[in-house]
Specification:
Blueprint: H1 2-9, E1 12-13, H2 16-24, E2 30-34, E3 45-53, E4 59-67, E5 81-83, H3 88-95, E6 100-104, E7 110-113, E8 116-120, H4 121-140, H5 149-170, H6 189-211
Parallel strand pairs: 1-4, 2-6, 4-5
Antiparallel strand pairs: 2-3, 3-4, 7-8
Helix pairs in contact: 4-5, 5-6
């Protein structure tokens, strides 16, 4: 349930370049710029965040370095850089007159789950409590279904946002979830450790390639 709330309330990493393409094609009608820009008499650079609704109803965000340097040479940011500007909101309003640009202060007392940022802080606290309860159950329960105690532990260590709901659902007994045909055949700790080390990296690389 917490993961569902993370998807519904959180913000996934996006790309400012993709946003600009969608804005040029008229696919997006409104964005939110988080953070304060530079004043008229100020020079230098500032980091601002733009938030928009992407495909599948997922809210996306990207951090943009706004700098008064025309060529962006004064910025060391590895992300997108907007040169010759003082405020991202002003730039978006001027470049896309039909776009609704909302502004708000940055929110610091928030958490992140599964890469979704800017979640209510209470949701992060609830996730922490659930994680600790699941860890305690893993330590105590020597006869969990489908995987050994060490296998569930490594999953909790490396991919807890995925492992925690899987443990609650599959470690048994769970209503409406059938028991495994062979309870003694379980994923061992060694194999689980290898899967946790390599599978997330492969998935992340595949996701990044698709984002380009």
């Amino acid at each position: 349930m917490l993961v569902v709330f993370a998807v519904l309330l959180g913000e996934r990493q996006g790309r400012f370049g993709n946003l600009q393409n969608d804005l040029a094609e008229g696919k997006i009608s409104s964005v939110t710029v988080r953070g304060e820009g530079l004043l008229r008499n100020e020079t230098g650079s500032v980091l601002q965040t733009v938030v928009w609704e992407g495909g599948w109803g997922i809210t996306r965000q990207d951090d943009v370095r706004v700098t008064t340097d025309e060529d962006g040479s004064g910025s060391t940011s590895s992300g997108p850089v907007l040169s010759g500007e003082r405020d991202l909101a002003d730039y978006l309003r001027r470049t896309y007159p039909d776009l609704t640009v909302n502004t708000e202060w940055d929110r610091s007392s928030e958490s992140s789950i599964l890469g979704f940022r800017h979640l209510p802080s209470g949701l992060g606290l609830a996730l922490l409590v659930v994680n600790l309860v699941v860890l305690l159950r893993i330590v105590i329960d020597r006869h969990a279904w489908r995987a050994t105690r060490w296998a569930w532990f490594w999953a909790w260590m490396f991919v807890s946002p995925v492992a925690v709901p899987l443990f609650l659902l599959l470690s048994g007994p769970t209503p409406f979830v059938p028991a495994p045909r062979n309870p003694d055949r379980r994923l061992t700790g060694g194999w689980a450790l290898l899967l946790c080390l390599f599978v997330p990296g492969i998935v992340s690389a595949t996701w990044a390639a698709r984002s380009w």
